[in-house]
Structure formats: C-alpha cells, structure tokens
Amino acid sequence: MTTYASPAVKTNRPNLVAVGTIVWLSSELMFFAALFAMYFTTRAVQGPKIWAESTEMLNIPFSATNTTILVLSSVTCQYGVFAAERFQARRTGSLWQISQWGMREWFALTFLMGAVFIGGQVFEYAELVHEGLTLSSNAYGSVFYMTTGFHGLHVTGGLIAFLIVLIRVFKAQKFGHSQATTAIVVSYYWHFVDIVWIALFTAIYLIK
Amino acid sequence: MKTSWILFVGLSVFYAILTVIYWQLGGEAVGITAISLSAGLALIVGFYLWFTDRRLGNLLPEDNQQGEIADSAGEIGFFSPHSWWPLPVALSASALALGLIIGWWLVLLALGALIVSIMGMVLEYERPTTSAH
C-alpha cells in the first residue's frame, strides 16, 4: 500500500478503519451475549446437580495459568501498538534489549502467547473428553464447549490476524500510517477477545 | 464528537439502570445478560468516541454550528478502486457454512480456500516496489 500511503500529516478526524472495527466489535459482543445467555439459561433449566457434577472435572489451576498467559499477551500486544504508533517496525538493538523492540518483536511474542493459550485449551479439552465430558455427553458439555470453543475460534482468528499484520509489515517498503492502523485495529480485537475470556472464565470456572 | 460520546455513554448508563430494574423485578437470565451486555455494546462505541475526542482535541466540521460541507473535505482513507478478491472470500465463506451441512471434507477445503483468499485480499496492495507492477 506504500504507493497509496497518506503523507505523515496530523490526523484531525477518527480513522475510518478503527471506527469500523469498533462498531463490528460491539456487534461481536452481542454474539457472545447470546452464548452467555445460552449458558445461564441451560444452567437454570437443568438445575444445580448436573453443574456440580460436571464442574468438578474442571482443572482450575491449569485454566487460571492459561488465562494469565492470555491477559499478559494483551499487555505485550499494547507494547506492540506503542511501537507501531512511533512507526518502529523492527528492533534497534539486540533481541535481549526489550526496550529497543519494535512492533514486529512484540507482536511475535503476543502470537506465541496466544498460541500457547490455544494449545492449553486443546490440552484441556482432551483431558475433559478423557474424563467423559463431550459436546454431546450432557447439557453442561454442550454449553461448555460451545462457549469456550467459539472463544477459542476467535483467538485463532486473532492469531491469523497477527500473522497477516506481520506479513504486511514484512512486504511493505516502509512502515507508514496504513501499517500502523492495521496493527492498532488488530490490537483492539485482541483486547476485546481477552476481555470476553475474562468474563467467560469468571462465569464458567469461578462462579460455576 | 462530544455529542456523539455523550449519546452512546448515556445509552450505556440507561441500559445499566434498566438491567438493575429488570433484575429486581425478577427477570430471567437471558434478559439480564442481553440488557447488561447491551450496556457494553453502547459503552464500546462511547468509550472509543470519548477517547478519540480527547486524543484529537479538535472540533469536527460535523459538530460546528457554522460548518460547511467543504470543511470536511480532504483525505478520508484508502479505498480499493477495483478488486476481485471479495468474491473468492464470499464464495469460500459460503462453502464453509454449507460444509457444516454437507460434510467435514468440504469444511476443510473451504477453510483453506478462505484463508488463501483473505490473504489475497489484505495483501493485494502490499507489493514491494521492486516487483514488475
């Protein structure tokens, strides 16, 4: 997009890509509202017994660690945005000088942490299936896999988005406003997915 | 933009109050979830507008009482003049959804096609200047 990149002028209006992303994210929230509503209704209809039996299988310390990794990945993502806002695509020092990191390094680290989260979730699913909780075993299994599964798909989509940002920055000749905008809107999405997970984790693992 | 964010944050406060009332009147789980997250829906937009307003720190031509149409002229953003890529994106997304009915083999094929076409769409204008284009 370098041939079309706008000159580095001070913007005086909201960025259209960012506005579009925000409006889309607010509609995404309502998608998750449907999933939350499904979870709470099924819980109310099925009664507390099936919930008490099924939530015993959950490995809280493991998922809490996984949650921490995802929350921290939001922090590293934000550092990537700070780098993008000063148009710094790559690091200026060695790999161990974290203060010299550019957007590329921070986003790569965020990608790794997100991938670890997904890996952890796959491991958790495998354990639960092993213990007999599947999508079709009972009502709890259905809502558990539907809510956390759709969230997992969103995280996977975010990982693909990070890859796209990294490829775009790699292909672009210089890091300009359009590359920074892409990085910033992907970070909006990542923070959103992170906040949704905190709510899901609270509802499913803590409140039960 | 002040009017815009007050509108959305106000909507959010309204939904939050409504959630409490609905809950106190003995509302069920779906309604409480839907109304409280509607507050979130408005708050996301409201917070973004408030934050951007603070960051830009200027009056938009739309908010200026004496504003003219010409005041908002200038560069809006980048828009693709012509592209074939949305078509394969839409086709593979349709195939992905159809695959859920027809069979998992189609889901896998469509997923691959979807990723390739999304890559094609977002990277279309990202060409190194050294290439033949």
Automatic annotation (TrEMBL), chain A:
Q: Domain Heme-copper oxidase subunit III family profile spans what residues?
A: 1-208
How is this protein situated with respect to the membrane? Multi-pass membrane protein
- Residue ranges crossing the lipid bilayer per the database entry: 16-40, 60-84, 105-123, 143-167, 188-207
Q: State where it is primarily located.
A: membrane
Q: Annotated Gene Ontology MF terms?
A: cytochrome-c oxidase activity
Q: Keywords for this entry?
A: Cell membrane, Membrane, Transmembrane, Transmembrane helix
Q: From its record, what is one biological process in GO terms? A: aerobic electron transport chain
Subcellular localization is given as: Cell membrane
Q: What cellular-component terms does GO give this entry? A: plasma membrane
**Family assignment?**
Belongs to the cytochrome c oxidase subunit 3 family.
- What is the name attached to this protein's record? Unannotated protein
